[in-house]
Amino acid sequence: MTDITASTPDRLLSVRELFGIDSDLRVPAFAERSEHVPDIDSVYRFQPDVTLAILAGFMRDRRVMVQGLHGTGKSTHIEQIAARLNWPCVRVNLDGHISRLDLVGKDAVVLRDGQQVTEFQEGIVPWALQRPVALIFDEYDAGRPDVMFVIQRILERDGQFTLMDQNRVLRPHAFFRLFATANTVGLGNLNGLYHGAQRLNHAQIDRWNIVASLDYLAAAEELAIVQARVPALADEAGTKLVRSMVAVADLTRKGFAAGDLSTLMSPRTVITWAENVEIFKDVALAFRLSFVNKCDEAERPLVAEYFQRCFDLELKESHRLAVS
């Protein structure tokens, strides 16, 4: 493993060769991996437009926000690009428990030569800012106001960060990169799906150079991912089964968009359903345990109708499958 503090990108990689995108762009990368580089997921599917947007962040130090519904793989998309570039990457979830002190740092009592002394311990922001790290703020629209104003400082063009308690001004490392993911674009919990999502002030959103929208994959791509995760369903019978599962998921998404459902099936849910099919050998039981029981009781008849339409089976019955 390399020393992350001293390392810098030392090669340029072809976007066409690395991601299969028709582009002449070349992106900086590290020759060696460090402990902060994510593991490569060989079955992850990249969406070209979003990939190019994220790559612009790595190449030109653009602040990139990726917005999309849950389960679309927003954070994973950034991490998997970083994994292929051997770029150190740190992910911070801005839930309600993350405080300003967690980001900035705080005084802590430590032992030095057998004596208790008080010293300042850096938070994640100054630590990452001084290193060639891609810092991802997950659930960006769920952050507390005091936390968001800390982040706003490093969204400026020069990105300087002042540690008030230390009377220090930190200048970002030349290869520090900043990303965020969000379910909304700072407009709050308009549809009731994302409780805790905050309205962000326009000055905050305006500081993000690029906002990419990540949607669910095409049916064929989603089918391929499910089969890669659950190889037992990769045969002819499994392909037919998974295709119907993806069709059910698509109907729930359309039902959600039309206002008929208050929840939907993400690709993550479909994978969970497939894994549970492998366990229980029963597509209906696995569906109930994976998704139906999460739905509002008033909406379950509609979900059952989607299932019946795609499988030509009644959801209330048990349907044993021969899954190897």
UniProtKB/TrEMBL annotation:
TM ranges: none
Q: Name one Pfam family in it.
A: AAA_5
Query: In this protein, which residues make up the domain named AAA+ ATPase?
Result: 60-206
Q: Which GO terms describe its molecular function?
A: ATP binding; ATP hydrolysis activity
Protein known as: Cobaltochelatase subunit CobS
Protein source organism: Variovorax guangxiensis
UniProt lineage: Bacteria, Pseudomonadati, Pseudomonadota, Betaproteobacteria, Burkholderiales
